[in-house]
Amino acid sequence: MADDDATSHTPTNPHMGEMTLRQAMINRSLMSVEMIRMRAALEEQKKEFEKNLEEDNPTNALKPDDKGKRPIVTDEVPKPKLDRVSFKSFRSSGATEYTGQSDPVLVMQWVQNTEKVFRTIRVHDEDKVRYASAMLTDRALVWWDNTYESLDSNTRENMLWDEFRSKFFEQYCPMDLQRRLEKEFWDLKQGTMTVMEYETEFNRKLRFGQRFLSTEDDKVERFVGGLRKEIRNFLVNREVPSFVKAVEFARRCEHDLSIPDDPVPAAKRPCTGKTSTVPTYRSPKFLMSKRGQTHNATRTTPQAYSLQSNAPRICQRCGKNHVG
What spans are recorded as compositionally biased (Basic and acidic residues) (predicted)? Predict the structure, then answer.
């Protein structure tokens, strides 16, 4: 028992207690540093996630006040980024050259065709002037080279299609020619053309008079006004909601007018007063009655002659009528 008491009351080493406390403080510090590092890593991952989300779907980007909130998920599919169209693709898609003809209709056709290719393959705005000007040849190329040299560097790099088209029209379709074509559009009549031919000519010259046609109804009214009278009267009495319907109704009317009327039956034909050359059928009874009349006439004639022969004659000697 004495030994046990002595062992239990043996004083502990003070240095060991200090070492244990110091180790605990070190461990706690290490844990704090590790927690700080983990938080920093999580924050960095969060920022990277928000950045990627904003790039993938700009319309659903997080606002500064929404940091830390869950992004709103929508059904909208992000639009794919369009690749830049090459000049080779532009040329092979139907782009045509322009040599500088002084025909305003050809000028308009070249511009319209070029714009059609722009829309079809989705040429970027910054490439339109470069691609279109590369299709100019001969006199048109000489004009563009001189025009390009007269521009400042900023205008050369930032010129858009509308500005190029304006300069192009000033050179090859000036205002006096545009006014002349505008008058031709307003004077356009169907005449001997079919409805389809008239529609084609109408659309070809429409651009020169379009500044006066602000609505669809104005366009329909101008188209109907140039139709032939019989077709125009048919459309005037109908409700025409659009230009497409106006063309459709005009084609139908033209087709109906081309179908000949049904022939009138012989019993209902009006008398024209003309004698017919077809021989009339005579019945045998009619012919016999005619023959009888002729025979009687031949028999009565000699009787009349004989009565006249028995009348007294004028005497050649005395001049009186007596027999003998």
Answer: 63-74
For the chain, state the CA radius of gyration: 55
In DSSP terms, which residues pair with 313 in a beta bridge? 322
- Per the rule left: phi > 0, alpha: psi between -120 and 50, beta: everything else, 191 is left
Q: How far apart are CA 147 and CA 164, in angstroms?
A: 10
**What's the CA gap between 11 and 82, in Å, rounded?**
83
Contacts of 75 (CB under 8 A, 6+ apart): none
Q: Mapping DSSP to helix (H, G, I), strand (E, B) and coil, where does residue 210 land? A: helix
121 touches 94 (CB < 8 A): no
| Residue from 242, 237, 250, 253 nearest 200 by CA | 250
Q: 202 Cβ partners below 8 Å, 6+ apart?
A: 185, 188, 223, 226
Q: Which two tokens stand for residue 240?
A: 């025409």
How many residues does this entry show for the chain?
Answer: 324
Give residue 198's pLDDT.
96
Which has the higher per-residue pLDDT, 210 or 285? Answer: 210
DSSP at 205: H
Is pLDDT above 50 for 307?
A: no
Of 148, 178, 159, 161, whose CA–CA distance to 117 is shortest? 161
Residue appearing with tokens 């470069």: 130
For residue 254, give every residue at least 6 positions away whose Cβ sits within 8 Å of its Cβ, in sequence order, or none: 194, 195, 231
